[in-house]
Design brief:
The structure holds two protein chains of two kinds. By secondary structure, chain A is α/β, with parallel strands linked by helices. Helix content of chain A is 45%, strand content 14%. In chain A, helix 7 links the parallel strand 5 and strand 6. Chains A and B meet through helix 3, helix 4, helix 5 and helix 7 of A and strand 1, helix 1, helix 10, helix 16 and helix 17 of B.
Chain lengths: 253, 641
């Protein structure tokens, strides 16, 4: 206390110029802040975020590049997320565009990125490797389960598109088969993860109807649709292979 | 000579690649990413083996690029390091304008530059190889940079003399780690001031040398005259640096030292409030266990609302706790860099990083992270941070802090989702019992936590058989029998039984009979309790390996105390080693998961969790937090970091 009073004294002596100075500074900071605020608001209002999610190796980054840059590239496992606009595939004149966020497939990174970005999302694209879904059904369903039970996603009725990627491969499973597999897995997960004796377990926790086997149709809030897709098509013209995804994006933008 | 070379963004988009003899390189690169870059195992070597391929990588943190080179591992290519840094520079030179949007660019033309650089470096290497024969062998042996570093260290701190001498031998990596082990151990004993400055000194020296070592390699493009000049320059400048550097760094370190003292005192006061397990004390009801289980992947908030007694201050406090100390210590540097930041954007240099990282390491060790692990972690983080562009108002310290935090979360998060219950149900539907074997050293709480897990399975309507394979310790079987009686009383309905064969028998045989018995009598889960054993007890470890080999359990859980520090590493490593060595199988069963016990006793010293998860790369499946059956939780990663 006493020390602060001591330093207050000399400061008062030079008051007028200091005061003027600080007022102008405050004004400046205030104006700058307002400008920033509006800039950010304007930007965030314009952009529709869509998250790309899925298991490692499902083809998220390939799809991302296809959607944002309209070309096929080789990809390796992502270490960080990719962010980009989809204006290349959207109709030129519409002026609508979607900000895609490609979330790395590694369990250790995925949910971090997810947590920070889910609040902005207008839609979720869940990418599934149609070739290996039989083997990796558990992990895929785990991810999907977490998306579907996310309070934020449920509250805002975020539409979810399950993309069955790699349809060009011979051994790829059909959309219906993938859907069946996921439903079956989700059914077992919702039993093991949800316990009715839990007092605090809120309604949103349990997916679908309690007394029936789980189907995607039971989900009221979130519309889950399925789409075929071939992210790594070498077709030079247009967005061959990803039309269904583009359609989904159009409905959002 | 090189099998492949590729440049890709950290987002995973391949920008450029050259493929040599070998068919496809993507699997190798993915393996590298998965087991090195993502696991914070970066460290010094920056090389990795996969399928007869030796991979070496370099990170560009400014533009988020990764450069990877792969070659057959029987080739001893000494120019790879140089090649990587040269091509890195070259790439940046060529495309410095486009790199802001690196993933959109076209880099096909870079192939020409690649050839140029490669031939230049190869030629340089060949010349270097040819030359030493004419020269003295003594000088030849001295050309490694790290060897020089160790020589200088010898002058600085005499305690490291022996290890410095060891450094002359070829495999620097091993010697280095030894040194690291020695350093942190010595810290608490010495007067803090002396060691702190002394050590950071060493580190800075090392780092500078590395930096310097890179520069001559990267700058000139004429490789022929290089080797000689490089050597001469190095020795001269180093001497200058030694004096200048020591003095300056001692000063800066003194500043932070004072702050550190103050901080540690205040930190001591604050310690009480963050008994950090948000999961502790959520209740007594049977249901709570499942609830804790559900919280697995959920936000911390729910946990917190459950634990209303003492930790309203919340998970945020411990979250920052681990790194807060270090951040404050490095604040002086942070302030300074803020002013610098006003001028323009800048990148993090090694010099800036070294002191912050050193403090971070101390902070980690203070939290009971094994010294070796702390060192590796910090190295990997510093490698990731170097050259990274800072935002205008970001300080080095705060950036490092978040990086370390991220790294910790990454380590503790399981690689794939752990859902023991689902696996058990899957086994049930397949008509097989789900077998879990518990192992660990004496007195860590194997039986107690086995009982808790049995209770948890009972809660989930599964029939449990406990196999008493601890045929050694007096009272072990009786203890399990008591547990079973109690559990049976709590969950009437003949759902839990004990399979016992008395003492002195072969544990592996009992386990096998128990599993067979479970199969016949439709038990869903078999929990195999084994005798506690010290990791150095060779015969007992062999017995354990036999038990696991014979019975092939679905899950091998290592039970470890949260109390241990450096010992954790030794335990886990030796258990894993014993299981691998004695199994005689191509793909030995090793530890699948960790049960961390006595977590309620350790306050905020949560380092053991980090150490064990880092070493094994396996998830922490359960956490034991007390004496009752319900005191079994899932680890909440956010709460720990």
């Amino acid at each position: 206390m006493s020390s602060s009073g001591g330093t207050g004294g000399p400061a008062d002596a030079t008051a007028p110029s200091t005061l003027l100075y600080s007022i102008s500074l405050l004004l400046f900071v205030g104006i700058a802040g307002l400008i920033f605020y509006f800039l950010i608001r304007k930007q965030s209002r314009k952009l529709q975020y869509v998250l790309l999610l899925g298991r490692n190796g499902a083809g998220k980054t390939a799809l991302f590049v296809k959607l944002t840059q309209d070309r096929s590239v080789l990809t390796v496992s992502s270490l960080v997320q990719n962010v980009g606009l989809t204006k290349d595939v959207m109709p030129r004149d519409s002026g609508r565009e979607v900000q895609l966020i490609d979330i790395p497939g590694f369990e250790r990174i995925r949910w971090d990125v997810w947590e920070t970005n889910k609040g902005l999302s207008k839609g979720v694209i869940f990418v599934v490797d149609s070739v290996t879904i039989g083997r990796d059904s558990q992990e895929c369903a785990d991810i999907l389960y977490r998306i579907l039970t996310d309070p934020e996603i449920q509250r805002r009725h975020i539409p979810i598109l399950v993309v069955c990627n790699k349809q060009d491969e011979v051994t790829a499973k059909d959309v219906e088969v993938v859907s069946d597999i996921l439903e079956k897995e989700l059914n077992s997960i919702r039993i093991t993860k949800y316990n009715p004796t839990t007092k605090k377990g809120n309604k949103s926790e349990f997916l679908g109807k309690v007394d029936q086997d789980f189907t995607f149709l039971q989900l009221r809030g979130n519309k889950v649709s399925f789409a075929k897709c071939t992210a790594r098509s070498d077709d030079p013209d247009g967005h061959e292979g990803v039309e269904a995804v583009v359609d989904f994006l159009r409905t959002l933008a | 000579m090189l099998d492949f070379f590729t440049i890709f963004s950290k987002g995973g988009i391949v920008l450029f690649y050259i493929q040599g003899t070998n068919g496809i390189f993507l699997p190798s690169v993915n393996a590298l990413i998965r087991s090195v870059l993502l696991e914070e195992r970066g460290g010094k070597s920056s090389s990795f083996m996969h399928d007869n391929l030796q991979l070496q990588y370099k990170l560009d943190n400014e533009f988020d690029l990764v450069f990877v080179v792969g070659y057959q591992n029987f080739l001893q290519l000494n120019y790879v390091d140089k090649f990587l840094s040269e091509i890195h520079l070259r790439f940046r030179d060529e495309y410095k304008n486009d790199l802001k949007f690196a993933t959109r660019g076209e880099y096909k033309k870079f192939a020409i530059c690649y050839e140029e650089v490669l031939t230049a470096v190869e030629e340089g290497a060949r010349e270097q190889n040819a030359r030493p024969k004419a020269m003295k062998t003594f000088q030849d042996s001295e050309k490694s940079k790290k060897t020089v570093a160790s020589l200088i260290e010898k002058k600085g701190g005499d305690e490291k003399k022996s290890s410095g001498k060891g450094g002359k031998t070829d495999n620097n990596g091993k010697v280095q780690t030894k040194k690291e082990q020695v350093e942190p151990l010595s810290t608490p004993e010495d007067s803090p001031k002396g060691t702190l400055s002394g050590k950071s000194d060493d580190e800075i020296m090392k780092n500078r040398e590395k930096l310097f070592g890179k520069r001559p390699g990267s700058g000139p493009t004429s490789p022929k005259a290089k080797p000689k000049a490089e050597k001469e320059k190095k020795t001269k400048q180093k001497r200058m640096w030694e004096q200048g550097g020591t003095y300056k760094d001692a000063n800066t370190l003194d500043f932070s030292k004072e702050k550190k003292n103050g901080e540690s005192q205040s930190g001591g006061d604050g310690d009480a409030q963050d008994s950090d397990m948000a999961i502790v004390g959520s209740g007594k009801d049977l249901a709570d266990l499942d609830e804790g289980d559900e919280n697995d992947y959920e936000s911390t908030e729910e946990d917190e609302s459950g634990s209303d007694q003492n930790e309203n201050s919340g998970t945020d406090a411990p979250k920052k706790k681990l790194v807060a100390a270090a951040a404050k210590k490095g604040f002086g540097g942070g302030m300074f860099s803020v002013f610098k930041g006003l001028v323009g954007s800048r990148t993090v240099s090694k010099e800036q990083l070294a002191p912050v990282i050193a403090k971070m390491r101390l902070a980690l060790i203070e939290k009971n992270v094994a010294a070796e692990i702390a060192e590796k972690l910090c190295q990997s983080v510093s490698e990731k941070m170097e050259g990274k562009a800072l935002g205008t108002f970001e300080g080095v310290a705060s950036v490092v802090k978040t990086a370390v935090q991220e790294a910790l979360v990454k380590i503790l998060t399981p690689k794939k989702p752990v859902n023991v219950l689902r696996d058990a149900l899957a086994a049930k539907s397949a008509g097989q019992p789900f077998v879990i074997t518990f192992c660990g050293v004496n007195g860590v709480g194997k039986s107690t936590n086995l009982a808790k897990i049995a209770f948890w399975f009972l809660e989930n309507q599964l029939r449990v058989l406990i196999a008493a394979c601890d045929t050694f310790r007096a009272g072990a079987v009786e203890q399990l029998r008591t547990h079973r009686t109690r559990l049976d009383a709590m969950h009437p309905g003949n759902n839990i039984h004990l399979y016992e064969k008395g003492y002195g028998k072969d544990a592996a045989a009992i386990a096998m009979e128990a599993i067979q018995y479970a199969r016949d009598n439709k038990y869903d889960v078999v929990l195999v309790d084994t005798a506690g054993r010290m990791q150095d007890n060779e015969p007992l470890m062999r017995a354990l390996a036999k038990l696991i080999k014979v019975n092939q359990p679905d899950m091998v859980l290592f039970v470890g105390e949260a109390l241990v520090g450096n010992e954790a590493v030794d335990q886990v490593v030796k258990f894993n080693q014993a299981l691998a060595d004695n199994s005689q199988a191509d793909q030995p069963r090793i530890i699948d998961g960790i049960v961390l016990t006595k977590f309620d006793t350790i306050d905020d010293k949560v380092g053991a969790a980090v150490s064990m998860a880092y070493i094994t790369g396996q998830p922490i499946v359960f956490v034991g937090t007390g004496q009752t059956y319900t005191d079994l939780k899932n680890l909440n990663t956010k709460a720990v970091c």
